Protein backbone atom coordinates (compact mmCIF):
# COMPACT_ATOMS: atom_id res chain seq x y z
CA UNK A 1 0.00 0.00 0.00
CA UNK A 2 2.80 2.38 0.80
CA UNK A 3 4.43 1.73 -2.59
CA UNK A 4 1.22 2.66 -4.41
CA UNK A 5 0.90 5.91 -2.49
CA UNK A 6 4.51 6.85 -3.24
CA UNK A 7 4.00 6.09 -6.94
CA UNK A 8 0.90 8.27 -7.18
CA UNK A 9 2.65 11.03 -5.28
CA UNK A 10 5.65 10.92 -7.63
CA UNK A 11 3.33 11.02 -10.63
CA UNK A 12 1.75 14.27 -9.42
CA UNK A 13 4.89 16.18 -8.43
CA UNK A 14 7.52 14.46 -10.55
CA UNK A 15 9.92 17.43 -10.70
CA UNK A 16 10.02 17.80 -6.93
CA UNK A 17 10.25 14.19 -5.83
CA UNK A 18 12.41 12.21 -8.29
CA UNK A 19 15.78 13.66 -7.22
CA UNK A 20 15.20 13.33 -3.43
CA UNK A 21 14.05 9.71 -3.85
CA UNK A 22 17.16 8.81 -5.84
CA UNK A 23 19.30 10.45 -3.20
CA UNK A 24 17.64 8.53 -0.38
CA UNK A 25 17.75 5.05 -1.91
CA UNK A 26 21.32 4.88 -3.31
CA UNK A 27 23.38 2.25 -1.47
CA UNK A 28 26.39 4.56 -1.08
CA UNK A 29 24.36 7.08 0.89
CA UNK A 30 22.59 4.38 2.88
CA UNK A 31 26.00 3.15 4.18
CA UNK A 32 27.02 6.55 5.55
CA UNK A 33 26.11 7.94 8.91
CA UNK A 34 27.45 10.35 11.50
CA UNK A 35 29.08 7.36 13.23
CA UNK A 36 31.32 6.49 10.29
CA UNK A 37 34.19 8.55 11.71
CA UNK A 38 35.06 5.62 14.01
CA UNK A 39 36.71 3.93 11.03
CA UNK A 40 39.52 6.46 11.41
CA UNK A 41 40.63 4.59 14.54
CA UNK A 42 41.51 1.46 12.53
CA UNK A 43 45.23 0.80 12.28
CA UNK A 44 46.79 0.56 8.84
CA UNK A 45 48.36 -2.91 8.86
CA UNK A 46 49.17 -3.20 5.16
CA UNK A 47 52.24 -5.40 4.72
CA UNK A 48 55.24 -3.85 3.03
CA UNK A 49 55.39 -4.53 -0.69
CA UNK A 50 57.96 -6.86 -2.29
CA UNK A 51 58.22 -8.96 0.87
CA UNK A 52 57.22 -12.54 1.51
CA UNK A 53 54.43 -12.64 4.06
CA UNK A 54 54.77 -15.48 6.56
CA UNK A 55 51.85 -16.42 8.80
CA UNK A 56 52.92 -18.83 11.53
CA UNK A 57 50.39 -20.66 13.66
CA UNK A 58 51.17 -22.34 16.97
CA UNK A 59 48.89 -24.57 18.98
CA UNK A 60 47.82 -22.85 22.19
CA UNK A 61 48.32 -25.01 25.32
CA UNK A 62 48.87 -28.03 23.11
CA UNK A 63 50.79 -29.90 25.80
CA UNK A 64 47.54 -30.09 27.72
CA UNK A 65 45.54 -30.82 24.57
CA UNK A 66 47.89 -33.71 23.71
CA UNK A 67 47.61 -35.18 27.20
CA UNK A 68 43.84 -34.86 27.30
CA UNK A 69 43.56 -36.66 23.95
CA UNK A 70 46.23 -39.23 24.78
CA UNK A 71 48.61 -38.47 21.93
CA UNK A 72 51.30 -41.10 21.43
CA UNK A 73 54.76 -40.09 22.67
CA UNK A 74 57.13 -38.92 21.29
CA UNK A 75 55.21 -38.54 18.00
CA UNK A 76 51.59 -39.22 17.16
CA UNK A 77 51.21 -39.81 13.42
CA UNK A 78 47.47 -39.19 13.66
CA UNK A 79 48.01 -35.72 15.09
CA UNK A 80 50.76 -34.90 12.61
CA UNK A 81 48.58 -36.10 9.75
CA UNK A 82 45.71 -33.93 10.96
CA UNK A 83 47.99 -30.88 11.13
CA UNK A 84 49.12 -31.50 7.55
CA UNK A 85 45.54 -32.04 6.35
CA UNK A 86 44.48 -28.75 7.94
CA UNK A 87 47.41 -26.94 6.31
CA UNK A 88 46.48 -28.55 3.00
CA UNK A 89 43.00 -27.07 3.40
CA UNK A 90 44.46 -23.61 4.02
CA UNK A 91 46.57 -23.77 0.86
CA UNK A 92 43.60 -24.87 -1.23
CA UNK A 93 41.63 -21.91 0.08
CA UNK A 94 44.45 -19.37 -0.33
CA UNK A 95 46.26 -20.22 -3.55
CA UNK A 96 48.77 -17.38 -3.17
CA UNK A 97 50.56 -19.45 -0.52
CA UNK A 98 53.72 -20.64 -2.27
CA UNK A 99 55.00 -23.00 0.41
CA UNK A 100 54.07 -24.14 3.92
CA UNK A 101 56.19 -25.87 6.53
CA UNK A 102 55.01 -27.59 9.69
CA UNK A 103 56.28 -29.63 12.60
CA UNK A 104 54.81 -30.64 15.95
CA UNK A 105 51.95 -28.19 16.69
CA UNK A 106 53.02 -25.36 14.37
CA UNK A 107 52.70 -24.48 10.70
CA UNK A 108 54.14 -21.59 8.68
CA UNK A 109 52.44 -20.34 5.52
CA UNK A 110 54.42 -18.26 3.02
CA UNK A 111 52.48 -15.91 0.75
CA UNK A 112 54.11 -14.97 -2.52
CA UNK A 113 56.05 -11.73 -2.49
CA UNK A 114 53.76 -10.37 -5.21
CA UNK A 115 50.54 -11.39 -3.47
CA UNK A 116 47.75 -8.82 -3.21
CA UNK A 117 45.26 -11.02 -1.35
CA UNK A 118 43.17 -9.03 1.17
CA UNK A 119 45.13 -5.94 0.01
CA UNK A 120 48.09 -7.39 1.98
CA UNK A 121 46.43 -6.53 5.30
CA UNK A 122 48.20 -8.50 8.03
CA UNK A 123 45.11 -8.88 10.22
CA UNK A 124 43.02 -10.23 7.34
CA UNK A 125 45.68 -12.72 6.26
CA UNK A 126 46.40 -13.98 9.76
CA UNK A 127 42.78 -14.34 10.85
CA UNK A 128 41.79 -16.08 7.64
CA UNK A 129 44.64 -18.58 7.93
CA UNK A 130 43.98 -19.19 11.63
CA UNK A 131 40.23 -19.64 11.23
CA UNK A 132 40.55 -21.92 8.19
CA UNK A 133 43.20 -24.03 9.93
CA UNK A 134 41.28 -24.31 13.22
CA UNK A 135 37.99 -25.21 11.60
CA UNK A 136 39.73 -27.77 9.36
CA UNK A 137 41.39 -29.33 12.41
CA UNK A 138 37.98 -30.00 13.93
CA UNK A 139 36.34 -30.91 10.60
CA UNK A 140 38.92 -33.58 9.71
CA UNK A 141 39.40 -34.91 13.25
CA UNK A 142 37.45 -38.14 12.66
CA UNK A 143 39.42 -38.84 9.50
CA UNK A 144 42.51 -39.39 11.67
CA UNK A 145 41.19 -40.24 15.14
CA UNK A 146 38.15 -42.30 14.19
CA UNK A 147 35.67 -42.71 17.03
CA UNK A 148 37.88 -40.98 19.59
CA UNK A 149 35.96 -37.79 20.41
CA UNK A 150 37.52 -34.35 20.44
CA UNK A 151 36.96 -33.15 24.00
CA UNK A 152 37.15 -29.41 23.47
CA UNK A 153 37.94 -26.96 20.65
CA UNK A 154 41.65 -26.46 19.93
CA UNK A 155 42.98 -22.98 19.36
CA UNK A 156 45.96 -21.58 17.49
CA UNK A 157 47.69 -18.24 17.92
CA UNK A 158 49.25 -16.54 14.93
CA UNK A 159 51.81 -13.96 13.94
CA UNK A 160 52.84 -12.24 10.71
CA UNK A 161 56.48 -11.79 9.68
CA UNK A 162 57.85 -10.15 6.53
CA UNK A 163 61.00 -11.29 4.72
CA UNK A 164 62.36 -9.10 1.89
CA UNK A 165 64.74 -11.57 0.24
CA UNK A 166 64.93 -15.22 -0.77
CA UNK A 167 67.89 -15.68 1.57
CA UNK A 168 65.89 -14.31 4.50
CA UNK A 169 62.97 -16.60 3.74
CA UNK A 170 65.15 -19.67 3.32
CA UNK A 171 66.93 -18.90 6.59
CA UNK A 172 63.55 -18.64 8.33
CA UNK A 173 62.43 -22.03 7.02
CA UNK A 174 65.85 -23.49 7.87
CA UNK A 175 65.43 -22.19 11.42
CA UNK A 176 62.07 -23.92 11.77
CA UNK A 177 63.44 -27.22 10.38
CA UNK A 178 66.49 -27.03 12.64
CA UNK A 179 64.09 -26.52 15.54
CA UNK A 180 62.21 -29.62 14.41
CA UNK A 181 65.42 -31.68 14.49
CA UNK A 182 66.50 -30.39 17.91
CA UNK A 183 63.12 -30.98 19.53
CA UNK A 184 62.54 -34.36 17.94
CA UNK A 185 65.96 -35.71 18.87
CA UNK A 186 65.44 -34.65 22.48
CA UNK A 187 61.92 -36.08 22.63
CA UNK A 188 63.00 -39.34 21.00
CA UNK A 189 65.73 -39.92 23.59
CA UNK A 190 63.59 -38.63 26.48
CA UNK A 191 60.65 -40.93 25.82
CA UNK A 192 62.88 -43.89 25.00
CA UNK A 193 64.45 -43.51 28.45
CA UNK A 194 60.98 -43.36 30.02
CA UNK A 195 59.26 -46.08 28.01
CA UNK A 196 62.10 -48.57 27.55
CA UNK A 197 64.51 -47.87 30.41
CA UNK A 198 61.81 -47.27 33.01
CA UNK A 199 63.04 -43.85 34.12
CA UNK A 200 60.63 -41.31 35.49
CA UNK A 201 60.19 -38.10 33.52
CA UNK A 202 62.23 -36.25 36.14
CA UNK A 203 65.03 -38.81 35.93
CA UNK A 204 65.04 -38.70 32.12
CA UNK A 205 65.20 -34.92 32.17
CA UNK A 206 68.10 -35.01 34.62
CA UNK A 207 69.92 -37.62 32.48
CA UNK A 208 69.76 -35.36 29.42
CA UNK A 209 70.86 -32.14 31.11
CA UNK A 210 73.89 -30.66 29.36
CA UNK A 211 73.98 -33.30 26.60
CA UNK A 212 74.76 -32.38 23.01
CA UNK A 213 73.28 -33.91 19.85
CA UNK A 214 76.18 -36.40 19.64
CA UNK A 215 75.53 -37.49 23.24
CA UNK A 216 71.86 -38.10 22.54
CA UNK A 217 72.63 -40.07 19.41
CA UNK A 218 75.11 -42.17 21.41
CA UNK A 219 72.50 -42.94 24.09
CA UNK A 220 70.04 -44.10 21.46
CA UNK A 221 72.57 -46.23 19.60
CA UNK A 222 74.62 -47.75 22.43
CA UNK A 223 71.81 -48.36 24.90
CA UNK A 224 68.81 -49.04 22.66
CA UNK A 225 70.32 -49.96 19.27
CA UNK A 226 68.48 -47.07 17.63
CA UNK A 227 70.04 -45.20 14.73
CA UNK A 228 68.36 -41.79 14.79
CA UNK A 229 68.98 -41.32 11.07
CA UNK A 230 66.69 -44.28 10.41
CA UNK A 231 63.80 -42.70 12.27
CA UNK A 232 60.84 -41.47 10.20
CA UNK A 233 61.65 -38.49 7.98
CA UNK A 234 58.25 -37.08 8.92
CA UNK A 235 59.43 -36.79 12.51
CA UNK A 236 62.99 -35.66 11.77
CA UNK A 237 62.31 -33.24 8.89
CA UNK A 238 58.72 -32.08 9.38
CA UNK A 239 56.29 -31.53 6.52
CA UNK A 240 56.76 -29.21 3.55
CA UNK A 241 53.76 -28.46 1.33
CA UNK A 242 54.13 -26.98 -2.15
CA UNK A 243 52.10 -26.68 -5.34
CA UNK A 244 52.94 -29.08 -8.15
CA UNK A 245 51.42 -29.68 -11.55
CA UNK A 246 50.32 -33.25 -12.01
CA UNK A 247 48.86 -34.93 -15.06
CA UNK A 248 45.73 -36.95 -14.44
CA UNK A 249 43.59 -39.00 -16.75
CA UNK A 250 39.86 -38.44 -16.68
CA UNK A 251 37.11 -40.01 -18.76
CA UNK A 252 35.01 -37.70 -20.90
CA UNK A 253 31.87 -38.57 -22.84
CA UNK A 254 32.18 -37.50 -26.49
CA UNK A 255 30.12 -37.99 -29.63
CA UNK A 256 32.21 -37.83 -32.81
CA UNK A 257 30.37 -36.95 -36.04
CA UNK A 258 28.41 -39.87 -37.44
CA UNK A 259 29.42 -42.10 -34.54
CA UNK A 260 27.87 -43.25 -31.30
CA UNK A 261 28.70 -41.52 -28.05
CA UNK A 262 31.69 -43.05 -26.29
CA UNK A 263 33.98 -42.55 -23.30
CA UNK A 264 37.38 -41.09 -24.20
CA UNK A 265 40.38 -40.76 -21.81
CA UNK A 266 41.62 -37.17 -21.54
CA UNK A 267 44.84 -36.05 -19.85
CA UNK A 268 44.59 -32.86 -17.82
CA UNK A 269 47.26 -30.93 -15.96
CA UNK A 270 46.20 -29.64 -12.56
CA UNK A 271 47.92 -27.91 -9.66
CA UNK A 272 47.79 -29.94 -6.49
CA UNK A 273 49.29 -29.59 -3.04
CA UNK A 274 52.11 -32.09 -2.56
CA UNK A 275 53.75 -33.04 0.75
CA UNK A 276 57.48 -33.62 1.23
CA UNK A 277 59.41 -34.82 4.26
CA UNK A 278 62.91 -33.82 3.23
CA UNK A 279 65.75 -31.44 3.91
CA UNK A 280 64.98 -27.83 2.99
CA UNK A 281 68.10 -26.32 4.53
CA UNK A 282 70.41 -27.34 1.69
CA UNK A 283 70.17 -26.28 -1.93
CA UNK A 284 68.85 -29.50 -3.52
CA UNK A 285 65.19 -28.99 -2.65
CA UNK A 286 65.19 -25.43 -4.00
CA UNK A 287 67.02 -26.42 -7.17
CA UNK A 288 64.43 -29.13 -7.81
CA UNK A 289 61.57 -26.68 -7.21
CA UNK A 290 62.73 -23.33 -8.67
CA UNK A 291 59.20 -21.95 -9.05
CA UNK A 292 58.67 -21.50 -5.32
CA UNK A 293 60.87 -18.43 -4.92
CA UNK A 294 60.45 -15.21 -6.87
CA UNK A 295 63.37 -13.39 -8.43
CA UNK A 296 65.06 -11.03 -5.96
CA UNK A 297 65.72 -8.57 -8.78
CA UNK A 298 62.04 -8.01 -9.56
List the helices and strands and how they pair.
Blueprint: H1 2-12, H2 14-25, H3 27-30, E1 52-59, H4 62-68, H5 77-93, E2 97-103, E3 106-111, H6 122-139, H7 141-145, E4 156-163, H8 166-195, H9 201-208, H10 213-224, H11 233-237, E5 239-254, E6 262-276, H12 284-288
Antiparallel strand pairs: 1-3, 1-4, 2-3, 2-5, 5-6
Helix pairs in contact: 1-2, 5-6, 8-9, 8-10
Enzyme class: transferase
Domain tRNAHis guanylyltransferase catalytic: 35-164
Keywords: GTP-binding, Magnesium, Metal-binding, Nucleotide-binding, Nucleotidyltransferase, Transferase, tRNA processing
Task: Describe the fold and architecture.
The chain is an alpha+beta fold and 298 residues long. The chain has a domain at 52-181: 2-Layer Sandwich (Alpha-Beta Plaits). The protein contains twelve helices and six strands. It has helices spanning 2-12, 14-25, 27-30, 62-68, 77-93, 122-139, 141-145, 166-195, 201-208, 213-224, 233-237, 284-288; strands at residues 52-59, 97-103, 106-111, 156-163, 239-254, 262-276. A six-stranded antiparallel sheet has the order 4-1-3-2-5-6, sandwiched between helices. β5 and β6 (262-276) form a beta hairpin. The longest helix is centred in the middle third of the chain and has 30 residues, at 166-195. The protein is globular. The relative contact order is 0.12. Homotetramer. Interacts with MFN1 and MFN2; functions as a guanyl-nucleotide exchange factor/GEF for MFN2 and also probably MFN1. Mg(2+) 2 binds at residues 58, 105. This is tRNA(His) guanylyltransferase.
Amino acid sequence: MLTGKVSRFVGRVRSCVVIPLARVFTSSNMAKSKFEYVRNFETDDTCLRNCYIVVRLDGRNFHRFAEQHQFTKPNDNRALGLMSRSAHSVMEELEDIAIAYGQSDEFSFVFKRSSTWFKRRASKLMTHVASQFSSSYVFYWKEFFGDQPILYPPSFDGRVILYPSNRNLRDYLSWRQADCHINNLYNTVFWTLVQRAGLTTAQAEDRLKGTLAADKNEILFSEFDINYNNESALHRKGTTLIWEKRNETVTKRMKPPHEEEKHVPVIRSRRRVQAYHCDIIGDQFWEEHPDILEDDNC
